[in-house]
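Project standup — Tuesday

K.O.: blocked on the structure for the chain from last sprint. Re-posting the sequence here as requested.
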Amino acid sequence: MIDIHCHILPGVDDGAADLSESVKMAKIAHADGISKIIATPHINEPSITRQSLIIRHEMLTQRLEEKMIPVDILLGGEVSFYLDSSQFNLHTLNGTKYILIEFPAGHLLQRAGEILFHLILKGFYPIIAHPERNAAILKNPDMLFNLLNMQVLVQITAGSLTGMFGQDSKACARFLLRKGAVSFIASDAHSARYRRPVLSEAVHKAGKIIGKENALKLVTTNPEAMLAGEKIRR
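H.V.: unblocked you, prediction finished:
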């Protein structure tokens, strides 16, 4: 499996605090059947430079090789809609045109559609991170579906399907799966103790809703296509 959203880079954000924590997370991911992880630190200000992320990425990759942990770490970012669009090219997922976009947790901006439309015009493929945890979308899922008309993709969190974020987010995640709106399931892991990098339980639960084969596509076929720069169709 491939995890496209994980805060495994050490010392960047509220994810792994240090290299030791990052290694523990990689061990957990490997045990769960994850072979590749896209490191997606929060990118919410210009001071988070691409070079600083590359240094941490190289450090982590080297340590995993030393420990013989067979998990490939790729580089990306969870990019805040606040960030100036001129910075977006620096933080796409593994250098593709796919970009993971985070909107505020408490509401959905009226200009969200405009932001996504301009990204598409610039050649990006936006992926909305964890909309099932957004308070506005929980109240009115149509707000999300209106955005998806513009070829925008959706990533839901594994923990939402397992109930980690409460019954409302769980119900919303299941609803989005039934509607065929979801292109990826990812861990959005932040540590080795809580919000861990595991996908298998969520995939199992998704399989009961959309079938095992379709559920597996959300952590295998679709991420593979994304990494290859291919267009993903819902």
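K.O.: great, moving the ticket to review. Strands lie at 2-6, 36-39, 42-43, 72-75, 78-80, 98-102, 125-129, 153-157, 184-186. The longest strand covers residues 2-6.
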